[in-house]
Amino acid sequence: xxxxxxxxxxxxxxxxxxxxxxxxxxxxxxxxxxxxxxxxxxxxxxxxxxxxxxxxxxxxxxxxxxxxxxxxxxxxxxxxxxxxxxxxxxxxxxxxxxxxxxxxxxxxxxxxxxxxxxxxxxxxxxxxxxxxxxxxxxxxxxxxxxxxxxxxxxxxxxxxxxxxxxxxxxxxxxxxxxxxxxxxxxxxxxxxxxxxxxxxxxxxxxxxxxxxxxxxxxxxxxxxxxxxxxxxxxxxxxxxxxxxxxxxxxxxxxxxxxxxxxxxxxxxxxxxxxxxxxxxxxxxxxxxxxxxxxxxxxxxxxxxxxxxxxxxxxxxxxxxxxxxxxxxxxxxxxxxxxxxxxxxxxxxxxxxxxxxxxxxxxxxxxxxxxxxxxxxxxxxxxxxxxxxxxxxxxxxxxxxxxxxxxxxxxxxxxxxxxxxxxxxxxxxxxxxxxxxxxxxxxxxxxxxxxxxxxxxxxxxxxxxxxxxxxxxxxxxxxxxxxxxxxxxxxxxxxxxxxxxxxxxxxxxxxxxxxxxxxxxxxxxxxxxxxxxxxxxxxxxxxxxxxxxxxxxxxxxxxxxxxxxxxxxxxxxxxxxxxxxxxxxxxxxxxxxxxxxxxxxxxxxxxxxxxxxxxxxxxxxxxxxxxxxxxxxxxxxxxxxxxxxxxxxxxxxxxxxxxxxxxxxxxxxxxxxxxxxxxxxxxxxxxxxxxxxxxxxxxxxxxxxxxxxxxxxxxxxxxxxxxxxxxxxx
Length: 729
Ligand code: ADP
Ligand code: MG
Fold this sequence. Notes:
Blueprint: H1 5-14, H2 34-37, E1 42-43, H3 53-63, H4 71-87, E2 90-97, E3 105-110, E4 112-115, E5 118-121, H5 125-129, E6 130-131, E7 151-155, E8 161-166, E9 169-180, H6 189-209, E10 218-232, H7 233-236, H8 240-245, H9 270-285, E11 290-295, E12 301-306, E13 309-310, H10 311-331, E14 334-337, E15 351-359, H11 372-391, H12 393-399, H13 403-408, H14 425-435, H15 454-463, E16 471-473, E17 478-480, H16 490-516, H17 521-536, H18 548-557, H19 565-573, H20 575-583, H21 589-642, H22 648-678, H23 683-711, H24 722-727
Parallel strand pairs: 2-9
Antiparallel strand pairs: 1-8, 2-3, 4-5, 6-7, 7-9, 8-9, 10-12, 10-13, 10-14, 10-15, 11-12, 15-17, 16-17
Helix pairs in contact: 3-4, 6-16, 9-10, 11-16, 11-17, 12-16, 12-19, 14-17, 16-17, 19-21, 19-23, 21-22, 21-23, 22-23
The structure holds adenosine-5'-diphosphate (ADP) and magnesium ion (MG).
């Protein structure tokens, strides 16, 4: 067998040049500064000069919850948005929503309308506010019967309307929430908005009780670091497994992979840089403040991080970042892989969810500030967050659970499936000495009272070193690192917000009691911090989260460790583990029920696709390649014998090949038998069987396939290898 396609593909990649893109330019063709075209494709309602002043002000009140949206306001906005869009050459509009599939959905309608027999462009108030997609084709987890399949999309004012370019026309995107006929959330956005409101309200109440009388509003802030892999399309499209499942189901690791640590922060390859710049131009026009770009640890892995913003907007922006990465990659001849573990044996991709809160004065609630007064508050808030994570770790674990993240959590260079909090030595010591009623003494023996300026610097220096924690304090924010790269941040954010909101509410009640018993604010805050921290300190772990010792230690501490998605979702399904979400009005019980159903159902579907994909790979690629090579070896041995030439080497290779084929066949049959028995039982049982019985077999087949890949000449191997996928671009 002589496969020339691989050589041809490699040659064509070697000849590929970076794709040039027109940088936005001014009158004399001079390149514009980013700030000159930033946000040009976005319609910010509160800043629009074309809107009537009353409408603008009324919309401001709607946004802060003081008023509800009226038809008149919507009419006004629709008219102005239509003019703005037409001016920019937009022809269509769509309601953009985020069903529980985890992706985004959109159905385009043209502005075209025929009135009195004449064509005109139109966008009515009701078209702006409400859409009615047929919801029966979106997962609902059983909240609806088919006869009430109707679902509604409703305009989300808190996230701006924007325009996306297509090659031959432009479309107006209206961010919307997706709810059922009965008002149940069918997306992650609705719970997220509710959780922002809940946390905003409870954090505000806590702060005003703690003496900050100027606070009347707290918002959640969020910055999402997005990791991804780039693979040349020419090879990716020859890997059915990658196209169908988002990851390579088999693949032998190259001898050099990431041991030399030479990729992280390395020089960005030209073709990749051209891609990144193209992505950034798109994002800037969409008002997404892309800030950081760099090579990540694994070969072929990169990262993009924007400047943080309000949580709901950050959620929408991350959706756009993901789809822009995919689209632009395609233009540049790449496949952008957002899967958590596209390649076995090297780092997977995460999505670090940087999270904090800020008040109406723009103060970051997690900034270790300079006055003692504020520091006591800061410490109390840190304790509140720790308590939230401690008490709600099962829900937090479930919020990041997916079939794909299961491969990453606990694997190479990824946080474990145990939820813990990293505070860093300094902050931990401050809290520990507080509960022990001692004065805090820093390492250098300088007395550092809690009000000293050094605190901020000390914390910054001491908190950004541990990369192994699923939830880490990093100077002036927490970083939820266990979130998967392909995940939507809506759910983890909603759960985290609700958990913290719930803890704030309890803390405020206590604080009020202490204050009314005569304690001064500072004393009351300290007492509160001590009490909370004592209760939840088992969640704090500053050591190496990747080590096996931690797994044992965590078990001793009683911290849950749900390794698989089914286990985690089943635990989350228990009322005691999710009830806080209903008391904080973030989900209704029936929404949670359907969310869990959808998640389990999706787990089963994705895994089924992987199992079928694996079988296809074995049947159509791996075995035929092995048979062909085996045949050649057999012929050689046979003919050698005829001419009395020694063929011991060939024979030993042949025997070993035959042995591995038998191994694969054995596991393959076992997989088939087990699979046939898997689908009896409830969804929970099926999902568990898949995780515990099927996936280990899939892994075993993969390992055997990889042995074959290593023992068969490249000219016989019909699939692009890890070398092609990770090193050629
Ligand atoms: P690192 O890789 O060291 O974690 P990055 O600069 O890559 O740092 O990412 C940090 C992210 O955290 C950025 O998106 C940044 O905007 C965000 N961030 C910074 N401050 C806050 C905050 N107060 N609230 C939420 N996110 C924040
Ligand atoms: Mg980073």
